[in-house]
Amino acid sequence: MKKLFSVLAAISVAMVLIAGSGAYLISKTLIAQSKVDAVSSAAKGMATTLSLQISLFERLLEKMAQDPDVVNTVIQNNPALIAVAEKKLADRFPDIIHIKIITADQIKSGLNTNPDLSFADQQMVKQTFAKEQLSAIQGEGNDRHLSITRRIIQNNTAIAVILAGIRYDFINTSVANVSLEKGYLELRQDKLVLATAGEKKEEISSDNPSISVGNTDWKIYLGNNGMPNFLEFSLIFSMTLIPALVVALGFVTGYRKFTDTLRAELSWVIKAVKDILIDKPLGNYPIKLQEVNMVITTLAQFKRVVTEKKFDF
Question: Do 215 and 172 lie in a common domain?
Answer without folding.
Answer: yes
